[in-house]
Design brief:
There is one protein chain. This protein is an alpha+beta fold and 151 residues long. The chain has 3 helices and 6 strands; from the N terminus they run ββααββαββ. The chain has a 6-stranded antiparallel β-sheet, with helices on one face. β5 and β6 form a beta hairpin. The longest helix is centred in the N-terminal third of the chain and has 20 residues.
Length: 151
């Protein structure tokens, strides 16, 4: 991905998010179990979004979002030198999963190749989400995966 990269530019996107959203975030330091903790945070977030915002999750939304969280946290853990932040934001129409880490190197999106060992994380995230962006920020980089929900 380049300086700022976006996947699926033809995908519908509703523009800037509403100021009223459910938001949760947690910092992880790479200790064993952090990926499971990130997934648990995402699971609690989805439960609250359904209960409090009456969000309608599609048949695969929960599993797709959990896999995206796993892949993004794994990448942050593997490629950054320091703590990283997982931020989950959503309302009844959309959910975004954002990971900030200290590395300024943007992810590489390889062409699909089942014979390649490794390097499939971003390929998976792009396939699961409606939109993925990656950009450098003052602390390193930010990767955001967005899911549009049924209304």
């Amino acid at each position: 991905m380049n300086e700022q990269a976006t996947s699926r530019p033809d995908a519908p996107f509703s523009g800037s998010p509403s100021s009223e959203v459910l938001l949760t975030a947690e910092v992880f330091d790479g200790e064993p179990g952090c990926i499971a903790q990130a997934r648990a945070l995402a699971d609690r977030f989805l439960a609250r979004l359904v209960a409090e915002w009456l969000a309608v999750l599609g048949e695969h939304t929960r599993s797709d979002l959990m896999l995206a969280v796993s892949e993004l946290i794994t990448n942050a853990d593997r490629y950054s030198h320091g703590p990283y932040l997982l931020e989950l934001e959503g309302d009844a129409r959309r959910i975004s999963v954002t990971v900030y880490d200290s590395s300024t190197a943007l992810p590489v999106l390889y062409s699909p190749d089942p014979a390649r060992l490794g390097g499939h994380g971003m390929e998976i995230v792009v396939a699961l989400c409606d939109r993925v962006t990656a950009e450098r920020v003052p602390v390193g980089k930010r990767i955001r995966a967005e899911f549009m929900l049924s209304t």
